[in-house]
Specification:
mainly alpha
């Protein structure tokens, strides 16, 4: 009886100010997590991981690289997810690009334990991503491309993302100490576990 009554409760769309708050909070958490990884010279997967590798090997900084690398995926996002999701995602990408430049000016990372950065940074990125996903936004990149390729019957999305992340790890082995690569793998586990546990579409009433 209780389940039946609950299922009859109409879903409530998020208000514009709730979406705005989510964009700000989600991108701030993601940016802080990325900043921890940048300062500790750790890597993550996808476009963010590629951007970190470029930052570590050149004079370029994460923010601009992350924004530029995500631009080619914007058209795919419009095709597959529609304008609403794509615009929110573009705003998220822009905010992350800007916030990752500002956070080191607001916080001092002169002493940062790499193991702490790996776990805490991954957890913050995971929670930030969940916040964005629950308000129909994302951070673009490989996830959109993987879904597009799966729709076209080229390769399964999960397999493609795994290939990309493994390629990033292989490159990182030639650039970073083995200990930092190992900690990055631990971080990847924490990030994905955080998202898997906390983001299950349809679980909550009121999801837009």
């Amino acid at each position: 009886m209780a389940d039946t009554a609950e299922n009859q409760i109409p879903l409530q769309q998020h208000k514009w100010y709730e979406d705005l708050q989510a964009l700000l909070l989600g991108t701030l958490l993601l940016s802080f997590g990325v900043t921890l990884y940048s300062e500790a010279m750790l890597i993550t997967g996808g476009v963010a991981g590629t951007s970190l590798l470029i930052e570590f090997s050149t004079s370029l900084t994460f923010g601009p690289v992350f924004f530029v690398l995500n631009l080619p995926f914007f058209a795919l996002s419009i095709m597959r997810m529609g304008w609403g999701f794509s615009i929110r995602t573009l705003i998220s990408i822009a905010l992350i690009s800007g916030l990752t430049r500002l956070i080191p000016l607001w916080a001092d990372f002169s002493m940062l334990n790499p193991a702490f950065a790996a776990v805490m940074g991954a957890a913050m990125m995971g929670v930030g991503l969940v916040v964005l996903l629950r308000h129909r936004a994302g951070i673009g990149g490989v996830t959109i491309l993987s879904q597009f390729l799966q729709d076209k019957g080229v390769v399964r999305a999960g397999i493609f993302q795994l290939i990309v992340d493994l390629a990033i790890l292989v490159v990182a082995l030639f650039m970073l100490p083995l200990k930092l690569v190992a900690l990055s793998i631990v971080g990847a586990f924490v990030l994905n576990l955080t998202v898997a546990i906390n983001h299950k579409p349809g679980r909550y009433r009121g999801m837009s």
